Amino acid sequence: MDVRTLCLATLTHGAMSGYQIKRHFEATFSHFFGAGYGSIYPALSDLAAEGLVRGEDVAQDGKPDKRVFHITAAGDTRLRATLAEEAPRHKVRSEFLVLMYFAHLLDRARLAEVLDERERGIEIQLAKIDEVERCCAGPPGLSLVAGFGRATLETQLDFLRRHRERFLDATDAANAT
Amino acid sequence: MDVRTLCLATLTHGAMSGYQIKRHFEATFSHFFGAGYGSIYPALSDLAAEGLVRGEDVAQDGKPDKRVFHITAAGDTRLRATLAEEAPRHKVRSEFLVLMYFAHLLDRARLAEVLDERERGIEIQLAKIDEVERCCAGPPGLSLVAGFGRATLETQLDFLRRHRERFLDATDAANAT
DNA sequence: TCGCTCATGTAACGCGTTACATGATTCG
DNA sequence: CGAATCATGTAACGCGTTACATGAGCGA
Predict the structure, then answer these.
(1) pLDDT for A90-127, tens place per residue?
(2) What is the distance in angstroms between the Cα of A65 and the nearest Cα belonging to chain B?
(3) Residue whose C-alpha is closest to residue A95's, from B106, B6, B41
(4) Mean pLDDT score, B17-32
């Protein structure tokens, strides 16, 4: 599944501009999917060229014009077909865990720094999840996905905190700073 | 951090061929990092060209020759410098969660299928983690990373099982099959 | 004999990331 | 006055994924 499909799906919530879609991505599923303008704008152009979405320029006062896209009937049909066929993947690519695996090649201060950074990252994502659940309406899947993310992140944060000393000691065995 | 660095780091465990490195990746951290031959072999060639590793052809009986690589002093220096500087990322890209978020666009049978598949995937990864912890020696980071992975995956599996009905019902609200 | 494992690579392709380019308005 | 927000895009680059090409043993 690519950014194109995700944009198409997002537009089932209502008409939006590329900028708004990006904001929505960040607020709603930044913890499991990321996309930048460099992916979103071209995706929207492609979708429009295929007739799956249609865009209209809207003038705003005090703000730049925006191009608001809405999904077409053809787009809806295509979207459902795509979601029904595609085998969904779940990929994790953690350079953080690679570093933890090779902790014995790091010094203690560096390890502590990396650990702190990861904890902060998790906390930020948890805060975003709390916020989106509190303030925004969404499809039924929203609370499920938020719950999944919260459970995952809380478990990881808890693990990092409880084993902090073990992590830091992984460095001392082979590497006396 | 790219596959090059990961290969370099892996060679600190001892000399290995590209094929063996791939096997090692799969056994040890398939749950948080993936790499195919198309990345590994070129990475090894590059590293050799830079003098960070050195490879020797070894004849085997009953099996094809292999090119065994070992890390050089320059490689070790570069590796430690790289690991000390780089800001490690932790990325998740889950098409599965995207699908769950848009569950209302799916029918119940499809949702059940997707859920089952994800559960199976998690079970496979958990089995791999158990195996690598039982049978293989490794650096101190191994048990930490394995524990992190197990905690994460068990939480997710538990969440999927406990909320299965809620997931399946997310489809019925808007979409009576 | 069929298919799997061991073994090494290349080449094209797809896709996302990053940087760049531009510009009005609002808030501190 | 400077920074942030709103707003849209392009272009190059990097990197991983996939498919392809080849080939000898071994176990069912």
Answers:
(1) 999 999 999 999 999 999 999 999 999 999 999 999 99
(2) 30
(3) B6
(4) 95
Q: What is the pLDDT of residue B61?
A: 73
What's the pTM? 0.93
Strand D lies under 7 A from the Cβ of residue A44: yes
Name every residue whose Cβ is closer than 8 Å to that of residue A32 and which is 6 or more positions away in sequence: A145, A149, B92, B93, B94, B97, B98
The owner of tokens 């007739």 is A51
Using a 7 A cutoff on CB, list residues near strand C: A 2-3, 34-39, 43, 62-64; B 17-20, 23, 37-38, 41-42, 44-45, 60, 63-68
Q: What is the length of chain B?
A: 177
Residue A42 above 90 pLDDT? yes
**List of long-range contacts for A121-130, beta carbons under 8 Å, 24+ apart:** A121/B90, A122/A153, A122/A156, A122/A157, A122/A160, A123/A157, A125/A30, A125/A31, A125/A149, A125/A153, A126/A150, A126/A153, A126/A154, A126/A157, A128/A26, A128/A27, A128/A30, A128/A31, A129/A31, A129/A153
DSSP B107: -
Amino acid at A47: L
Please give, rounded to a whole number of angstroms, the shortest distance from the CA of A98 to a CA of chain B: 8
Closest nt by CA–C1' to A17: D7
Torsion (CA) B9, B10, B14, B16 in degrees, nearest 10: -130
- Cross-chain CB nearest to B91 (options A93, A106, A140): A93
Q: What is the pLDDT of residue A61?
A: 72
Contact B33 A117 (CB under 8 A): no
> Is A97 in contact with B6 (CB distance < 8 Å)?
no
Q: What is the pLDDT of residues A45-85, one digit of tens each?
A: 999 999 999 999 887 777 777 899 999 999 999 999 999 99
pLDDT of amino acid B135:
79
In one letter, which amino acid is A109?
A
Give B-chain residues touching A147 at CB under 8 angstroms: 159, 163
